[in-house]
Amino acid sequence: MAEAIQKKLQAELEKYQQLQKDVSKSMSARQKLEAQLTENNIVKEELALLDIQNTVYKLIGPVLVRQDLDEAKATVSKRLEYINGEIQRYETLLKEMERKSEQHREVLSSLQQEYQRAQGQAVGKV
Amino acid sequence: MASVHDQMAAAGKVKRSKDLPQGVERLKEEHRKVVKDCRSQIEHWKKVENDYESLQDRLRTLPDKLSYDIMVPFGPLAFMPGKLVHTNELTVLLGDNWFAKCSAKQADALVEHRKKHVKNTLDDLQKVMKNFQNRADFTDDLEKLTGDTGDFVDIREEVINEEEVTKGKHRLAHKGNSKPKQEYLLELEGDKKKEGDEERTTGVLSEEELWARLDELERQEELQDERYRYTRLDSTDTNGEDTTSSSEEEKEADGGSDVQVNGHQKENGWVPPSITSQMNGTNGSHPEDEEEEDCDEEAGNGLPTIYFSHTAEFKKVRINTGKNTTLKFSERNEQKAQAKRKKKSGKSNGHSPHESYKITSPADIYRVFVDLVNGEPIPRKSILKSRSRENSVCSDTSESSTADFEERRAAFGRSWSHDDATHSDTSDGVTEEESPTGKSPRTNGRFEAFTGTVIEKDPLPCSIPHLTIAPPALPTIPERKLEEVGPEATQEPPKRMSKFKATRLHQK
Questions:
Q1: Domains of chain A by range and CATH?
Q2: Which chain positions lie within coiled-coil regions (chain A) (predicted)?
Q3: For residue A32, is pLDDT > 50?
Q4: Residue A47: its chain B contacts at CB < 8 A?
Q5: Helices B104-147 and A2-49 meet at what angle, rounded to 10?
Q6: Where are the alpha helices (DSSP H) in A1-126?
């Protein structure tokens, strides 16, 4: 009886740990996105400081490709929107995973209690 | 594995007493870590700022010459003489693989703009560091509090009559803040249970505790917001820690997480919900009752205590009676009691002032310096003013007008008591004086020949701000007043009228 519970406990624990890893992965991805968000915001502001006379280049691989200022501004704005959307997606994902990990935690605690009770019984019997 | 669990289950109780200092240690560790992180980040950003400063200097001097003779780095190990040309044309990296050709001055502007960002980040970090520093200090204080090593002293007064302490009914919160006040209620009760035979001091001390707790909770909330922000910035580390901590706690006995909370509670007798929710992951759904009971099991308060006994005085609570007089609660009771006594015994006025000549607090002055009018002690609006008022309103003090007074009192008594009831129902801060205030100017025109020199404040605006500032104001006063007003309104409406209405008529 105790053995079975122990096995179940192990299995649950592993699932929970897996979930935690996923949570941390999405968390780090989200942080990266946030860094990109701030960077693109700065780029947008600095592009606003320039005038049409300055030539804007984009680094694509080893090449600096010439861009139009307005085009560059539009591109950066689009990228900002994209990043925001990604962040939202990750947010919902994270919430979902958080909820699932909460459930797993509860299951784990209940299993643990059962296990302890079983342990106590076993000791009592002995 | 079984034996380990067994031991842990058996040693659960023993663990609790050890867990407290461990918990505090751990908390301090975390605080120190955060503060260290903040420091290192601040250093990093300061370096960045310095780099930008030197860059700006270079930019300003660069366009001075058309070309410079320099040693050009040639690979990682060699230099080679060369020239720096087009000194005003710079290709600036804007971020995210975007470049722009700018002049030196434009580049200067860009650098300035970036420095602003760096400054903002630095400020945020400073704030976070300061907050966590405060938290660490707070936990230190907390530790001292429990460890009897600090200057904290528990002052207790043994109260004989429990009825006096609670006045029969527990305090209810103002409308807006009922939830937190109930928490305090629970905690205070828990403390009372904790003390066992000895009872805590009267409402004076518990009020101060409430204030202190309010302040603490406010601070906690601010810190929690900072912490929340910080964890969002740096969430992998802290989340990982939280999860590991919570999983550890799960593996341990369940009481472990309780203990941390209990530790806090035992120290101060209150639960900071914000901190517990952070420290215990999502474990924070323990009802407070449980924790109270757990507190009971543990050892009693280890603080040094001072016992002192209070003189048998009523609880002093300050009330804004809406007439620029803040009577103390006891005074009003005493006045009512005196008025009652006088009515029953028919004694003259001269008796009571002698009784109350002991001036122990500023409010006693108001009690002593009362107008002696028609056998009733009426509190004066102001000690300085009333004498001249009396002289100017000599017609009112004449014998002929007193009869009118009596009539008025009787006439208003019935309608006024009804009004008073409605007033007290509808608004919290309205005191009994305010309702007659509202009525008498209207009706005075009928009876009096002259309009008074005093223009009283409109009572309603008084009450409304009173309502809005209810949260920080002393709790329970309106409710207590209401309950006192309720039973007594029916009993002696003419009595109240005579006291305060007469004063006003006097002053008019």
A1: 1-116 (1.10.287.370)
A2: 2-36, 80-121
A3: yes
A4: 94, 98, 100
A5: 140
A6: 2-49, 69-125
